[in-house]
Each structure stands twice: as C-alpha cells, then as structure tokens.
Amino acid sequence: MNKSRFDSVFAAIALTVSAAWLVAWLAGFLIDTGSWSVRLGSFCAGFLLAGTAAMLLYARGRQQYLAAEQYFQKFCQPGRQDTVGGNSEDAPTPLKKNNKWYGITQRVRQMLDEYRERLQDSEHSRTALEIRCRRITAQYKRIEAILSGINDPIIAIDDYDELALANPKAERLFDFDSQSVENRALGNLLHCQKLVELLTSTSHRKTTGSRTEEFQFSDDGGQSNWYRATATKLVSADDRSDGQPQFSGAVAVLRDIGDQKLLQKRNAEFVSSVSHEMKTPLAGIKAYVELLLDGDAEDEETREEFLDVIDSQADRLRRLVDNMLNLARIEAGVVNVDKQNRPLNELLDEAAGVVQPAAEAKQIELVSDLSPMYLGVLADRDMMLQSAINLLSNAIKYTPQGGRVTLRSRLVDNEVQFEVEDTGVGLSEEDCRRVFEKFYRVKKNKEMAAGTGLGLPLAKHIVEDVHGGTLTVSSIEGQGSTFTITLPSSGQMK
Amino acid sequence: MSKSVLLCDDEIHILRAAEFKIKRAGFDVRIAGDGEEGWELIQQRKPDLLITDCQMPRLDGFGLVKRVRENPETADIPVLMLTAKGFELSQEELAGKWNVKGLISKPFSPRELLATVQEILGEPVATASTSA
C-alpha cells in the first residue's frame, strides 16, 4: 500500500472512529455514566483523532492540487511536442486516477491537444499558402520577364474591351504605361483602328481560333512601319470550378514585318527589272524576225543586217540569263568554289586580254600597271577572272572614245589590291552608293552601253561573299571612276 | 509632203526596226535616242506623230510628253508610248492626263505599230483635203 493510499484509509478510519466516539461521547454525556475528567479526556482524544484526520485529508488534497499544477505547468511548457498519448521525455507525469483533478486535467489536456493540433494544422496551411504564394509570385515574375523579353508587342484585353495586359514593347509602341493608365478602354489607348477592331471582334466571337491582320502604324516619332497582328480569343479552362470568375477576352501578338514588306517590294522591283531587261532584247528579236517574215528586207545586205541584230540580241538575252543564274547560285551558296593559291597578275593579264578588242574598237588605251611582285591570292580562277572582266568591260563601256583604262595591282598592308581606273563619265554620290544594286543603271550614261545591270553586283558577290574581300568605288563626275578590289593575300591566309 | 513621225527610244535596234517599218510605208521618220534629243527635233520641226519610249536617259518619255503638252505650239501632237513595263502603266491614266493615244508594250510588232500609226495619221502623204 503506498503512502497516499494509506493516508486515505487512515483518514477514513480516523473519521469513522471520531464520529463513533462523538456519538458514544454524546450518548455517555446524556446518560451521565462517566466522570468529567473521563469525559474531557475522551473529548480531547476524539478531537485529536478528528483533527489528525482533517489534516491528513487537507494534506492529501493539497498534494493532489500540486501534482495537477505541476502537470499543467509541464504540459503547457512552450515547444512541447507530445500530444495525448505521447511519450516524449519531457511529457508530464500523468496524474493518478484517484487524484480528484485527474478528470479535469484529462479534459483540459484533450482540449489543449485539440487546440494544439488545430494550431499545427493552421501553421501547416499557412506554410503551404506561403509556399504557393512564393511560387505564384515567382511564376508571375517569370511570365513578366518572358513578356518583357519578347521583342514583339503583345496586348491582351478582357471581355469589357479594356486593357488586361501589355508587354513593355507594346507600351513603347503605343506610348502608354499600363500600370498607371486610368482609362483602360482599348479605343482610348491604341490609336490604331484596325488593331482595336481586330482585338474586340476576336474577343466577342463565339468560336476560338486566330485571326490575322496586316496594318501600317506610325508611332509618335512619325516612324511608319508595317505590322502583322495575330489575335486569338482567350477563355479560361472550363474544368476549373474553383469559384473563380472565368476570364475571357483576346490577345494579339504583333510582328514587325517592315523588312518582309521591303523584301516583297524589292522582289517585285527585281521581277519588274528582270522582265524589263529581258523584254528589251526580246523586243529587238521579235521586231526583226517580223520584218524578215514580212519580207521588208528586200536585199541580202539588209537581211544580213537584221540577222546580225537578232543574233546580238539573242546573245544579250543569254548573257542576262547567265548572269542572273550565276548571281542566284552565288547568293544561294550552291556554286562550287575551287579556291587555290593563284598569282593574281596572271589572272589580270588574262582578263585584260579578253577585253582588249573592245578597248581597241573604241580607241581606248588599256594600260596594265601590274606589281612586279608575286601577288598570291586564294581564289577561284573562273570567278575572279569574271570579276576582273566585268570591271574592265564596265570601264571600257563608260569611257568615251579615246579615253584610258588603267589596271593596277599592288600589295598593301599584307593585302592584295587591284584597281580599275577609267577616264570615263564618272558617277554621282548616289550612283556610287547604288551602283552595286541589281539592275541599277546610271540613267544619264545609259545610252553609252547596253549592259545587263548585273555585272557589278555579280563582281561584288564574287569578291566579298565568296572570297572575303572588298569591292569599293570612288569617282569624280566627269573625270572618271576607280573600282578597287582588296583580297587577303594567300600568305596571310595560310 | 509625207506626214512625219518622230521616234524616241534609247534602244537603237528597236528604233531602227520601227523606223524601217514606218519609213517603208511612206512616212517621214526621224529618230532620237532620248527625250532631250527628241525635244530638240520637235522644236526644229513639229512632227505629225510622236512615238516615245517611257524609260530613257536624260529626259524620259513622261518628261518629254509633259513638255510637248505644256507648249501651246506642240500641245496638239498625237503621242504613242512604248514601254517594257506595261503592267505598271494605266492606258486610261495616260490618256486622261497626257492625252496619249495609245500604249504599246514591248516586245511589240512593227506591223501592229504601223497599223496604229496609219490609224492615227491615215495615208502617209497628205491629200489636198486633209492638208488644208
């Protein structure tokens, strides 16, 4: 029997004896069977017994109270992790079942454990929400960075036709700040009716799918450019029944198609130029064939003359087609290039030999001022020869009768240079800038030569794109022009 | 006296072919290599018909026609235009703006060119009734 149990039993016996004694004493007093001293002694003994029992009962209650207090103090220590039924080291010693505080402590403990669990659940929820919030923030920043990084303007509207989103490129193009703008109505922000109509009509369509519109837009600086806008209807996913309102609207991605339009224009100009250049010799051939068929050439001499014209015009047509094909092949990079170490001066001598008859026919002095040094270049023979011939024949064409064309070569700063200088009609500044464009013909000199308009562009492609050199021109109107080709020397390239 | 036709074109072969065909039909034909030369010949002697190419050095066909129309003495000369860029030019626009009688696309038929010339000028040699 442990002490508290003994105390309880003792207290119960003492109380019972005291009560019996009190009854006996009162009964003895009433029947008057004892002396006063016996009565007083027995009263004191009974009083002592009852006092002892009361003291013991008080001590026991106090002890239980202290145990319960200690229990709660331990239980409520901050940071304690155990719950009901937990068995961690810092767990409070459970109260004995005979402790009168046992029931209440159990209930309080259960309540506290429940609150503790709820608190822990809340903390878990809060942590999960914080993580989700951080993820959403990171995702938003990522999307924002991606939108900022996209070089195409992007604009989205909601189903009220108000601005929902615009990336910085769109803000710059249409000159607004989507964060600070108050009136978000699209018509107020975009001064481009076609785009506004495209976005709003796409947003209100019943069907999804993209629509495209091309338009020209002038920004605040007056710079006009072409854009292709592709608008797509936006609808948030139907399966998300999370109580959030569904978003709908439209988004447009604008693509700068200025270069494309320019290319289209240039292509159209190119086709127009090609057809014009081809029609001219064709017109000659057709006219003279018809004259022959109609019997207009009555004598043999005239017939011969007509046939010569047809022949020369057919040659011109062939040259034009050859040049165009060569140019196209070089531009497309499909031509076979056979670059080998070659002596430049030999190539230039050969080119001069080819154009010599044409120079003599116009009494033009063809001067060859070639370097005595060996100038090695890593070059495709046929191509480099073609370039030199094109430059020389061009110079002869645009130099009046009796003029002079000089062919020079030299080594300059480890680079090989050759130039063709003429005493011809010269070129204006604009001509110098555009003379390498396909079919560009210097108008005022056109009567001097019937070229294809492709000789110089072809030479430039050969020198710069195939051989990594440069072809430049300098000229003084009325005095002559100098075309200079600079190539890396083959020694340098080894 | 034969009716005169002035031909302007910077392509000498075309010029020669047209000249040959029209001259052979009995017309008086003069040729010029560009607009400036053509204008000089017009000032020397007014032709009955001007046939000019559009693209020419120094002074193009449009510049020449403009000069012809702006000068009261030459404003009434009928004009035919030759061009290798037919699709870029509108015959109606040319007719309305410059009173151009016709636009002939290259490559052209000398035979058809002559027929158009004859349609505009009639017989090569002016008769008493037409020359009055």
Describe the structure.
The complex is a heterodimer of chains A (494) and B (132). Helices cover 54% and strands 18% of the residues of chain A. In chain A, strands 2-1-5-4-3 form a 5-stranded antiparallel sheet, sandwiched between helices. Chain A has helices at 3-31, 36-75, 102-149, 168-174, 186-189, 193-203, 258-293, 300-332, 344-361, 381-397, 429-434, 455-466, 490-493; strands spanning 154-158, 163-166, 210-218, 224-235, 248-256, 339-343, 365-369, 376-380, 404-412, 415-422, 470-476, 480-488. In chain A, helix 7 (258-293) packs antiparallel against helix 8, helix 8 packs parallel to helix 12 and helix 9 runs parallel beside helix 10 (381-397). Chain A has 4 domains: 1-137; 150-236 and 247-256, PAS domain (Beta-Lactamase), CATH 3.30.450; 272-332, Helix Hairpins, CATH 1.10.287.130; 339-493, Histidine kinase-like ATPase, C-terminal domain (Heat Shock Protein 90, 2-Layer Sandwich). Helix content of chain B is 43%, strand content 20%. By secondary structure, chain B is of the alpha/beta class. Chains A and B meet through helix 7 and helix 8 of A and helix 1 of B.
